[in-house]
Amino acid sequence: MPAAEETFRPELFRDRNVLVVGGTGGIGGAVAEEFARAGARVVAAGLPAADPAPGATGITEVDLDLTRPGDLETLITGQDRLDVLVNAAGMIKRLDEYRPEVFAQVLEVNLTGTMRGCVAAHPLLAASGGSIVNVASMWSYFGGPLVPGYTASKGGVAQLTKALAVRYATDGVRVNAVAPGWIRTEMTAAIRQDPEAERRILDRTPQARWGTPRDVAQVVTFLASPAAGFITGAVLPVDGGYSVA
Asked: Residue 1: what pLDDT?
């Protein structure tokens, strides 16, 4: 089978402007790099990375805190043109999410932040015939007893994606989402350090490995590409088969 580099031509997104919210690390960082690799001009917005990597060609990093009212909207409306919006920002507080105030904070970032980005970007995307790709999760489908706020927020992202896909279709804007499974990021570091927990995950995953951020980024790139021109409202699992095993 062809490698990813052979699947998409290097200049597929040449002269396209891409904004990745949550693009300074993890899955979002890989998404920003993937679009830049495909020739796009990328703005990667998010909290400063704990261990920043050298800036990649074509990527401009911008500090963004989704808890500051108006900052996201100001960033988006300040763009001259926008072809792709990726909402990849997210937070997780695990058992603390059973505290109502923490639960609300997680929903504010993960779900309401996604909605704010989509609404603010809609006029620019309608003008360019662009698209939105949201980052949902396998917890959009499963019950996560240790992460009630994260689970609720990602279930909301999946349904929001479908609602906006229907609403925005008449404006020529496609809205899709990816639902990552167990991906090798900082968010899963503690689980990967527990041999028993890691074995349970790998035993259930048909491909028997952890996903990488680039595994997800390549699917995001596909959903934003002309190859997915007749796809909208989809929530595509990227989980090595975990959700069907």
From this structure: 43
Is the pLDDT at 33 greater than 60? The verdict is: yes
Q: Is the separation of the CB atoms in 161 and 175 below 8 Å? A: yes
The pair of structure tokens assigned to 72 is 């996201």
The pLDDT of residue 103:
98
Catalytic status, residue 150: yes
Q: Which of 98, 141, 150, 168 is catalytic?
A: 150
Contacting residues for 134 by C-beta, under 8 A, at least 6 apart: 86, 87, 114, 118, 157, 160, 161, 175, 176, 177, 178
What letter would DSSP give residue 211?
Answer: B
Which structural domains are found in the chain, ordered by start? 7-235 (3.40.50.720)
Decide if 198 contacts 216 (C-beta within 8 A).
no
